[in-house]
């Protein structure tokens, strides 16, 4: 799960989990549930790079919100496996930051954040299959989207609606049909009946005399 602000500590945990799950079964899909307002760009890019590095398919789910860096990680899931619940919110925007110092230092940091902006524009364009110019226009300011709008933009592939009662019943029926009957494989131990319980033999105690 990726819940809360994206920080270095969170990134360390998520990266470790991704690497561990891949080591267990590299062909099994890994599901990442995202409810994040965003956070550190560098920490988020660390998670992003690990998602691209592992061989396991990664499904991403927006639960609540996926804003800023959270929306990029949502879009970075395996094509066809990027989902959102119907009442979630998704937001994209350009990176922001603040720094204090000498004029030369301010210029250095300004150039760095411009490079990050261009890099992130390219990543959105890659995963959303949009032109960089269209992405740049949309992230110039905070752009909030509904799940359907995010789907049209290419951030996600599907909006998961809540299943109907009929669908739930069908799932339960299928689960019942798929249950394995393992009762024949379990050795049974017969409980003793009154007829099979051996009767205790009566013990007759006889008094003994003590010799003087």
From TrEMBL:
Record keywords: Hydrolase, Protease, Serine protease
Record-level GO BP terms: protein quality control for misfolded or incompletely synthesized proteins
InterPro entries hit by this protein: ClpP, ClpP/crotonase-like_dom_sf, ClpP/TepA, ClpP_His_AS, ClpP_Ser_AS
Annotated region (Disordered), positions in chain: 176-212
GO MF terms held by the record: ATP-dependent peptidase activity; ATPase binding; serine-type endopeptidase activity
Amino-acid biosynthesis recorded as keyword: no
Entry's EC annotation: 3.4.21.92
Active site: 68, 93
GO CC annotation: endopeptidase Clp complex
Top-level lineage group: Eukaryota
Family of this protein: Belongs to the peptidase S14 family.
Protein name: ATP-dependent Clp protease proteolytic subunit
Species this protein is from: Panstrongylus lignarius
């Amino acid at each position: 799960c990726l819940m809360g602000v994206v920080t270095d500590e969170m990134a360390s945990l998520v990266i470790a989990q991704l690497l561990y799950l891949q080591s267990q079964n590299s062909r099994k899909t890994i599901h990442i549930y995202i409810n994040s307002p965003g956070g550190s760009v560098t920490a988020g890019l660390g998670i992003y790079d690990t998602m691209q590095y592992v061989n396991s398919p990664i499904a991403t789910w927006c639960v609540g919100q996926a804003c800023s860096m959270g929306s990029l990680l949502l879009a970075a899931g395996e094509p066809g496996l990027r989902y959102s619940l119907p009442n979630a919110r998704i937001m994209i925007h350009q990176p922001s930051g603040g720094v204090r110092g000498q004029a030369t230092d301010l210029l250095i940091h300004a150039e760095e954040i411009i490079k990050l902006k261009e890099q992130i524009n390219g990543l959105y364009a890659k995963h959303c299959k949009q032109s960089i110019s269209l992405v740049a226009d949309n992230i110039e300011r905070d752009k909030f989207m509904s799940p359907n709008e995010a789907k049209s933009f290419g951030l996600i592939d599907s909006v998961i609606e809540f299943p109907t009662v009929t669908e739930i019943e069908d799932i339960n029926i299928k689960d019942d049909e798929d249950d394995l009957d393992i009762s024949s494989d379990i050795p049974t131990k017969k409980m003793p009946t009154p007829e099979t319980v051996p009767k205790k033999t009566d013990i007759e105690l006889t008094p003994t005399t003590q010799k003087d």
